[in-house]
Amino acid sequence: MTLSPARVPATGVRRLTTTLYGYAFLDDLVLLYPVYALLFADTGLPLWQISSLFALWSLTAVVLEVPSGAWADTVSRRRLLWLGPLLTAAGFALWVTVPSYGSFALGFVLWGAGGALGSGSLEALVYDELERLGAAERYARVMGRTRAARLLATVAAMGLAGPVLALGGYPAVGAASVLACLLAAATATRLPEHRVPAEKGSTRWSATLRAGLAEARGDRAVQGALLLIPAVVAVWGALDEYVSLLIRDLGVADTTVPYLVLLVWATVTVGSLFAGPAERLGTRGLAALIAGSALALAVGAGVRTPAGIALVGLAFAGFQLAEVLVDVRLQHRIEDARRATLTSVASLGTELATVAVFGLYALLGAAMAHSTVFVILSAPYLVTALVLARGSGRARNESPRERPRTQ
C-alpha cells in the first residue's frame, strides 16, 4: 500500500525522534558520573591532580569543539555520533582496568573528544532532518524532550550507581558505563541522515571552517544568537556542580542531600518537556523567562531552607528551557552547510564562559557562603534579560528568513 504524503513525514519524524531519544538516554546513562571522583581519590590521587583532570577535560573540549563542528559539516554527521560514544567507552574502560593518573588523563581526553564529535553534529542532523520532512517547527519540542531523556538517564545513573558499586565495585560500574556507550553507538547508526556529505579533503574541511567563521563575523543576527547561548548556559551550567554543596550548607543530614539533588533535577527534567509551547514566547517572553528564573535562583538560594531548593530547581528548569529556545534561534539563522560549525562555535563560547564562572566561583566561595555566591551569580541573567527586552523592538523588524518561527 502506498503511504499518503501526510503519512510519510509523520512516519519519518517518528523514526527520527524515537531513535534520537533512545540515543540521548543511553549516551548519558553513565554510572561512573556520580562516583568517578571517588575512584580517583581511592586510587590515591591528591586534590590537585583530580582538579587537573577536570581542567584537561575542559581543555580538550575547547580545542576540539570548533574543528569537530567543521568536520561534521564535511562528512557524515551520523558517523561522528556513533564514533563519539566509542571513544568515551574506551576511556571508561581504561579507568577501571588500569587505574592511574595517566589512564585517567587519557580517558578524559577520549571522553572530551567523544563529546566534541557529538556537539553540533546532533543539533545539525536533527534540524536538517526535520526541515527535510517539513517539520522544522517541531525542533524546540524535539530537543526539549531530548534533553529530558538525557536528564532522566542522569537521574537513573545516580540511582543505579550505588547498588552496582556495592555489588561489583568500580569494575562493575565501569562495565555498565561502557555497555551504555556501546549501546548508544549502536543506536546512533540507526539515526536517519539524508544529507549528502561534502567532498573529502582537508582543503574542503578548512574551507567549511573559514566559511562558518565568516558567516559568524558578517551576520549580526548570527552574532547575537551565538553570544546569547553562552550568556544563558554558562552560569547555571557551572552552578549545577555546586548544588550538593549548597544543600549541605543548609544543615540537613548528608543522607538527605541526594534526595534534594534529585528534586532539583526532576524539576529540570519536567521543565524540558515544555520547550515546544515555550517557543511561542518570543523575545520579550524569553527575557521574562530568564529574569523570572534569575529571581527564583536568588530567592531560592538566599532563603537557605530546603523549600528554597525547590525554587533553585524551578530556576534551573527555566534556564534549561531558555537554553533550548536560544539554540532554536541560532538554528533558524544559520545556513545548512555550516550548521554544525556554528553550533560548535556557540558551544566553544559556552565552554570558555563556564570555565570563567568556575574561576569566579572559586574566588567568591573562598570568602562567602555558597548561598551568597548563588545569589550574586544570578545577576548576569538579569543583565541578559534586560538586553533581550531592549532589543525586542529591533528583532520585530528582522526578515522572515532570519526569524521564521522564534518571534
Automatic annotation (TrEMBL):
Coiled coil region boundaries: none
GO MF, any single term: transmembrane transporter activity
Keyword Membrane among record annotations: yes
Domain of life: Bacteria
Keywords: Membrane, Transmembrane, Transmembrane helix
Lipoprotein in keyword set: no
Pfam families: MFS_1
InterPro entries named in the record: MFS (IPR011701), MFS_DHA3_Transporter (IPR053160), MFS_trans_sf (IPR036259)
TM region positions: 20-41, 47-68, 80-98, 104-127, 148-166, 259-278, 285-303, 309-328, 340-363, 369-389
PANTHER family per UniProt: PERMEASE, MAJOR FACILITATOR SUPERFAMILY-RELATED, TRANSPORT PROTEIN-RELATED
Protein name per UniProt: Transporter
